[in-house]
Amino acid sequence: MSRERICLGIPCFGDVPPQILEDYMRFAFALGRRYQEWDFILGVRAKSEQFRARNNIVEGSLATGCKYTLMLDDDQLIDSDAIV
Q: What are phi and psi of 65, to 5 degrees?
């Protein structure tokens, strides 16, 4: 039985601090452990213009059959311990 998918989309500039990207990976891992009925896909797109990066993420999300897309910005810190 196939699980439904959620895309975690992040438009990033080239100089995103490694800590931010590590936070996103921990967040995706924590979501996968907590919500095992879903598959999570992490989509990171470099951006020259934010709207183009966001559009590319949405197109990729649709192409991979994701039911939902959660868009995060490259300056957001996520506390993966706070996932409910």
A: 80, 25
Return d(Cα 39, Cα 6) in angstroms, integer: 6
AA letter at 31: L
Q: Are 65 and 5 in contact (CB under 8 A)?
A: yes
Count Cβ atoms below 10 Å from residue 23 Cβ, excluding itself: 17
Q: Which amino acid belongs to residue 37?
A: E
Please tell me the chain's helix, strand, coil percentages from 3-state DSSP, rounded to the nearest 5.
40, 30, 30
Digits of tens for pLDDT over the chain (84 positions)?
A: 578 999 999 888 767 778 888 888 888 888 889 999 999 998 888 866 888 889 999 999 999 999 999 998 877 777 766 665
Q: Any alpha helices (H) in the chain, and if so which ranges? A: 18-34, 50-63
Residues facing 2 on adjacent strands: none
pTM score, two decimals? 0.80
